[in-house]
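Appendix B. Raw example, untouched.
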Amino acid sequence: MTARGPTAPPIFLFTDFGGDGPYVGQLKAAIHGINPALAVVDLCHDVAPFQVRPAAHLLAALLPYLPTGACVVAVVDPGVGTARRGVLLEADGFRLVGPDNGLLAVVAQRAKRAIWHYLPEPTDWVSATFHGRDWFGPVAARLLDGQHVDLRPADEPNPPEGMDWSTDWNRIIYIDGYGNAMTGLRADGFGVEDVLLLRDAVEIRHARTFAEVPPGEAFWFANSCGLAELAVNRGHAARQLGLAVGQHIDIRRHAHAGQGIT
């Protein structure tokens, strides 16, 4: 049975709702209404709107830095209100609740042990366009409050969406407030002499830190989440290099490059 009250693990929110407007607050209010003692933490709310696959890779990169036992409510859901299912994923000590649209799939593929469940259909009124507030958030809160949730094992012939996606993706998945651009590629698969290529022409070479290159120069590095990231020292890489979420990145491997980033 899950610990209740202040001893329960926190709920982390991962959405494309943005920092403005009422939506994050409403999601938190729904959780609070079930158990006000649950800790709710904003993990990320500025992922690219409607873009599920980039968000799936970002979520997988952020998850290892959360406390074991944490629950994530993940909502990037352009298909909200359709027949797509709601799912719970148990993966290496974490629980993730969200839509069955691929958002949780990269986490599942990277996990040593992943168990999928389908959520019960809501019995109370649910907005057709706000399942985060009316379905996913409340399910997570009830689970952490120790309440029974009538989960159904995902043993049907149709697997969850996204399970055929690659676990690394050579595209831009997130651009932060500094203009740095994360890729869906884990940096431990690179050597320091490998080069990232933009539009088959612009070469981006590796540096360990920003200060290793002159101001205004572009480079790629192993970021704090273990991903290969493009940046410009004291500049805005997305503007300077014309980067956007979903943009393809090529890789030129060095024949004698090392096995990873040190």
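End of appendix B.
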